[in-house]
């Protein structure tokens, strides 16, 4: 093992550049999948004829597919039907598709956890269905959804490493490039990569606990 050579300023800078791409992909994917997940979750909760059933089928199909397969599809299969995407956008699209399905199920479950008596009381007081959903159901459900949603965000950040299969220049890709130069760098580099992932994910975990405690 060569810790000194592995942790040279050049290598450290190279890893940080890859980590910046990882965080960029994760941030964009989190924002888009969160928005889509909430919309899909609400539509499924609303039991809209036909729409809810179609969304349920799509969500179940996506949730039961490997994310790696979806990444391959967005990067290698879409160009075959005329949609060629850059590696960055292919990775983001794959993550958004997969995570939106996962988050929509969290949202739907959170909405279903609200007692029916509250909904009936709100409707009997003159509130419309949308007003009841917006003012009564959704605020309470979001509080309960914080831990699983943040947990899903943590999984998403870790899942960005799968984009290494399409040579996206993210953290794992840069780590492999460095390791290819010298086998003595493997353990030091992977140790540093593990620490970088841990710091960000643990920070998200602490944020989740803080938010959960705040809303109790």
Automatic annotation (TrEMBL):
<feature type="transmembrane region" description="Helical">
    <location>
        <begin position="20"/>
        <end position="43"/>
    </location>
</feature>
<dbReference type="Pfam" id="PF00528">
    <property type="entry name" value="BPD_transp_1"/>
</dbReference>
<keyword id="KW-1003">Cell membrane</keyword>
<keyword id="KW-0812">Transmembrane</keyword>
<feature type="domain" description="ABC transmembrane type-1">
    <location>
        <begin position="19"/>
        <end position="208"/>
    </location>
</feature>
<keyword id="KW-1133">Transmembrane helix</keyword>
<keyword id="KW-0813">Transport</keyword>
<keyword id="KW-0472">Membrane</keyword>
<dbReference type="InterPro" id="IPR000515">
    <property type="entry name" value="MetI-like"/>
</dbReference>
<comment type="similarity">
    <text>Belongs to the binding-protein-dependent transport system permease family.</text>
</comment>
<dbReference type="InterPro" id="IPR043429">
    <property type="entry name" value="ArtM/GltK/GlnP/TcyL/YhdX-like"/>
</dbReference>
<feature type="transmembrane region" description="Helical">
    <location>
        <begin position="88"/>
        <end position="107"/>
    </location>
</feature>
<feature type="transmembrane region" description="Helical">
    <location>
        <begin position="185"/>
        <end position="207"/>
    </location>
</feature>
<dbReference type="InterPro" id="IPR010065">
    <property type="entry name" value="AA_ABC_transptr_permease_3TM"/>
</dbReference>
<protein>
    <submittedName>
        <fullName>Amino acid ABC transporter permease</fullName>
    </submittedName>
</protein>
<feature type="transmembrane region" description="Helical">
    <location>
        <begin position="55"/>
        <end position="76"/>
    </location>
</feature>
<dbReference type="InterPro" id="IPR035906">
    <property type="entry name" value="MetI-like_sf"/>
</dbReference>
